[in-house]
Amino acid sequence: MLINPNLTTARPTFVTHLECSMTGERYEADMLHGLSRVGRPLLVRYDLDAIKAAVPRALIDARPTDMWRWRELLPVRHTDNVVSLGEIETPLVPVPASGGLNTWVKDEGRLPTGSFKARGLVMAVSMAKELGVKRIAMPTNGNAGAALAAYASRCGIETIVFCPDDTPEINVREIALHGARVYRVNGLIDDCGAIVGKGAAEGRWFDFSTLKEPYRIEGKKTMGLELAAQFGWKLPDAIFYPTGGGTGLIGMWKAFDELEKLGWIGAKRPKMVAVQASGCAPIVKAFQEGVEHADRWEGAHTIASGIRVPRAVGDFLILRAVRESGGVAMAVDDDLIEEAVAFCAREDGLLLCPEGGATLAAYRLALKNGLVSADDKVVLFNCATGLKYPMPAANDAIDKDGVIDFDAL
Ligand SMILES: *Cc1c(COP(=O)(O)O)cnc(C)c1O
């Protein structure tokens, strides 16, 4: 059995160059790049006309639905360099009780390593392999480090991972078990990022921080490509995305643009809703103030560790996409997140991660304040399996040798 049948049939990729997301300056493809000269993310550009001529949309429809179905819109040149663990298309799970009849959860917890970080890291690691990288370091709140360690170990790249010392225990152990050297740091993810940056400047390793290499966005972009195909090439009305570094939101926005240029979708865009936690909401603050860049959020705290990101290098890209889409950035309190997770688990049978719970809580607020209506088709992102996070205690016990009150069970 082939893990990815699409990799045997797809045509080569169509990358032309990379481009600074701030200045538009051009960078050569097939070379190792970090940030652009002005310190901003690089975006991968493709010959979309050539793709349009070579790959009719019907061909995509006819392929198996895994992530490599989109091969021509992705950067890896040589199939041998694709380091795969079986990246499936994730299902849209209806949540009629907790969301409503037009609400679906895109359940990313089913991807390798249990989170959508697999999408970004399978691409970034495959490109690192293609470009000859031998050692990678990364700051992480947990899931990215796990995906990096899994894919990199699989292809013999060495990894060193730094995470805040209160990162969920299961993530730290998962990273270690996948063969990375993982260190707990007494700080937040940007403090970890500073250590990675320092080592990279000394030439010790390649810096794999969010958006500091160009290919994670391309992997995350596949969420947008998948949504288009799953909704019959008409996008939903709104997307609620738990926003940390914002890679997925930026990636989906890029995907929609490419799909329209290919003529595969029209001009209609979903409202992009960037969801953050009230205890760490730099993008929400910048959105409300009408500014293009976000200040560092001091004293960041939330149970949704994946979105505890005080500072995002792609802040302006997130804000731009949200504003262009007619969406908003909104924050929800941790107690609403916990309530949403519990409600969805109990009523809809779907266990969300706290970040996924944040999108559900935000959706309910948005319904209340009229930002979306119950008729709108809405997608909520659940970015990791809820099984990776601490859950409320369940301590009721039975003494098998005592008298059991069956009526009370
Ligand atoms: C990383 C992560 C996020 C945030 O994703 P970005 O695209 O970096 O904003 C949200 N939820 C979970 C579970 C994550 O691991």
What would you note in describing this structure?
With about 400 residues, the protein is α/β, with parallel strands linked by helices. It has three domains: about 80 residues, no CATH class; about 200 residues, Rossmann fold; about 90 residues, Rossmann fold (3-Layer(aba) Sandwich). It has a six-stranded mixed sheet, sandwiched between helices. A four-stranded parallel sheet has the order 8-7-6-9, sandwiched between helices. The radius of gyration is 21 Å and the shape is globular. Pyridoxal-5'-phosphate binds next to helix 5 and helix 9.
Give keywords.
binds pyridoxal-5'-phosphate, 13 strands, single chain, Rossmann fold, six-stranded mixed β-sheet, alpha/beta
Give a quick rundown of the structure.
This protein has 409 residues and is of the alpha/beta class.
CATH architecture of the largest domain: 3-Layer(aba) Sandwich
Binned strand content: 15-25%
Report the sheet with the most strands, covering strand number, pairing sense and barrel closure.
6 strands, mixed
Q: Strands of the biggest beta sheet: in what spatial order? A: 4-5-13-10-11-12
Stretches with pLDDT under 50, minimum 5 residues: none
**Which hetero ligands occur in this complex?**
pyridoxal-5'-phosphate
Shape: globular
Q: Determine the structural class based on helices, strands and strand pairing.
A: alpha/beta
**Average of pLDDT:** 96
User: How many distinct domains?
Assistant: 3
SSE ordering = HEEEHHEEHEHEHEHEHEHEHHEHHE
Report the span from N to C terminus: 47 Å
Number of strands: 13
Q: Helical proportion?
A: 25-40%
Rg measurement, Å: 21 Å
CATH class of the largest domain, named Alpha Beta
CATH topology of the largest domain: Rossmann fold
Number of helices: 13
